[in-house]
Prior knowledge:
Layout: H1 5-22, H2 27-38, H3 42-65, H4 72-90, H5 96-128, H6 134-155, H7 161-182, H8 208-234, H9 245-268, H10 270-290, H11 294-322, H12 327-356, H13 360-388
Helix pairs in contact: 1-4, 1-5, 1-6, 1-7, 2-8, 3-5, 3-12, 4-5, 4-7, 5-12, 6-7, 6-9, 6-11, 8-10, 8-11, 8-12, 8-13, 9-10, 9-11, 10-11, 10-13, 11-12, 12-13
Amino acid sequence: MTRHPMFHVLGGVLALSVAMGIGRFAYTPMLPFMQKAVHFSDAISGYLASSNYAGYLLGAVLAGIFSWQGKRTVFLRLSLSVSVLSTACMGLTDSVPVWFVLRFLSGLVSAFVFVLSSSIVLDVLASRGKMVWSGILYGGVGLGIMASGLLVTIGSTLWSWEGVWVALAVMGVAGTVLPWIWVKEEAPSEAPTQTNNQTSPLPSSKWLPWLIAAYGLEGLGYIVTGTFIVAITDQIPAFAGHAVWVWTLVGLAAAPSCILWAALAKRRGYVRMLIVSMFLQAVGIVLPAVWPTPLGSSISAVLFGATFMGITSMATTLTRQISPTQSSRMIGILTAVYGLGQMLGPTGAGLLASLTHNYNGALWGAAGVVLLGACFLGTGISYEQKEKR
């Protein structure tokens, strides 16, 4: 029986919520909570984050190398299971070396879930002429971030940090049921529906290296805020120990952002909207360094949440449209470069924060890197203009 494509989309939303929003990003709101209980440094917190992103990088590389055709459903289910187990195990030990292994595994399988669920769902949407729904899919990360932020906020008043990790895993188990049923690989369509009805032409495949380089810089820059925003906010006395709420704010802004950016990209062009979103994100990244107040941090959280998954959504969808016959491979390469940036960012930021006793230098550097990536994308605007003449 052929399912309605919305079942695939909703299953993909939940898959990304579990593996990315919870398995991968729950570490961000948990970080200050764990640091106060276990007493480890900012440098260690950066190394732990980088361990996760090293796993994500390896997973993305493997996803780009392997031919998953016919096996995507099985490996997606396996990856979701490992994601939930690695989350639960974080609460069963206080050994930092074991945490390194668990965060690495979580990163590895989150890359698999991202690439496999993206390629399965995007292929289905492309074959049914529903690519505009891709924004709904990537809203799953924001949904998971919002849910994990709320759970950590409430759970930290009820349980120890170990209990919160286990509660996050229980939430993850509930979230895997529908993806297990609904996200299944379909046989390739013999006559795919044409879905490129954009108002601006797409760059050619020769432009992909520029997009990949820009996306790698985005990974390097955004992850500083993605890892440390709660820890940064926790240093503001006015928050009085309630800094984890900014992570919920990130999720609230992220959940609808992909839909909005997809609509804007369809109307104004993917490359143009990628540049706009990266500029706004750079402003959000640096804001806590120049305006260290609750309002400044809240605006930073909204700008960050409203852009980071929108950028991923637009970059992934654009790559799928430029190279429709190699979606898994190209999304894997794109994600691998992004993962390399993510692995380097937290380590550098954590070391710099330990040396300077604040995150200001790391935030300025991260914002500059994201702006540089936006400049790389400017070559795509030039291409589109040439195509119109």
